[in-house]
Amino acid sequence: MTPLLLGSLLNPINSTMIATALVAIGQDFHVGAADTAWLISAMYLASAVGQPSLGRLADRIGPRRVFVAGALTVCAAGVLGALAPTFALLIVSRVVLGIGTAAAYPAAMAVLRAESRRTGHPTPRRVLGRLSLAALGSAAVGPTLGGLLAATAGWRAVFAVNVPLALLALLGALLWLPADRKDARPAHEGTASASLDPLGIALFAAALTCAMVFLLHLEAPQWLLLAPAGVLAGALVWWQLRHPAPFIDLRMLARNGALARTYLRHGLTYLVIYCVLYGFSQWLEQVHGASSFQAGLIMLPMSLAAAVCSLMGARTKGIRAPLTVAAACLALGSGVFLLLQGASPLVALLCAGALFGIPQGLSSTGNQAAVYAQAPADGVGAAAGLQRTAQYLGAITASSLIGLLYEQRASDSGLHEIALIGVVLGLLLLTLTLADRSLRPGATGTGTAGTGPGTGTGTGG
């Protein structure tokens, strides 16, 4: 588990570590909040495409090969970001970082499924819980670590720290990950190319890029971008329905409603989480007057609450209960943020962050267990990648909303608008969770992967 845990923390820690360095980066390159939002969205765009793509690759040529290649790419991205002389090159480094870090999580899920097949036993929920805790714990600690690095060594250390982390994951993979099956590699390159559906990947990336550029300029909408985005989305659907091994199996998702609803739940949850995560950290620095390091420390209770709740979620046998509590806490925590002002006492800030850490831990482990139980038996890597894609789509939307509501600088009114969005989406998630019959204990029809690890769910038609 050591290399899997190390690799799986690279993406989430980079997604949040940048939060407390955005202000310093903006000051150095003389850009505002709307521009630094590109550093968030660029990585998520690359990860949204990379996670399912590399998950499919792990299912076909072997997870160990994919994991090793991803770790080497992260090293290159860390060096590029640490030395970047321009803001544009810094964005490029985040794209490369998104691709490299996208390999570890779907590869880890594929390794666990292969080990489950070898032993004839389902992966224990506590093992999945460790994987979730590594991702969630690193994401939660990210703002504090980013603030510490930015305050002591400068924001470039936020990029440079990826080099030793990736090298440790690489060494662990070479030492301990089981060799890929000899039959995992396709017979020839044509087979690999066909099975990976490069045209589907390109159409998805192009449609998502158009949508992202539109979302990042909501203050002055570029309506003309909606036309190519719609055309590309239509072409993607047309191609996916005709390809024998599509990049996104729309027919499978139509048949597997439980898995599709899990993706929707996960994406909406992380839209709220990232809105608060990035919005709160910038508000702390620009309105409350905290330094980047102080902002990271103030967000530490959020990190601790998320880690504790992740462990609790991993020990829970059911799926519905933790997801219900997570949705309720999203709405409640967002309501508390509605009450915050620039002069709010420190204890109020700490309590607000701690309350918001609860849904981070419970939703992460709950939705991960749901995907594992609902995914097709031979496609868990791709299914896990699509789960992260849903998460990144939420994050891209969140960064766009922050750029719109904050414009060039955070404000009390902007934070309150973000919180109001969180209240509405939290209540919507609570309704969706309670209404989903596939999450009930003993329910069938949740997927095709067989009995989930400690979930009480079975196979369905």
From TrEMBL:
The keyword Membrane applies. The keyword Translocase does not apply. Residues 1-438 form the Major facilitator superfamily (MFS) profile domain. InterPro entries: MFS, MFS_dom, MFS_trans_sf. Keywords: Antibiotic resistance, Membrane, Transmembrane, Transmembrane helix. GO terms for cellular component: plasma membrane. It is a multi-pass membrane protein. GO terms for molecular function: transmembrane transporter activity. Pfam families: MFS_1. Residues 442-461 are annotated as: Disordered. Gene3D superfamilies: MFS general substrate transporter like domains, Multidrug resistance protein D. It is found in: Cell membrane. Residues 444-461 have a biased composition (Gly residues). The chain crosses the membrane at residues 66-85, 91-112, 133-151, 157-177, 198-217, 223-241, 262-281, 293-313, 325-358, 389-406, 418-435. One of its GO terms (biological process) is response to antibiotic. This is MFS transporter.
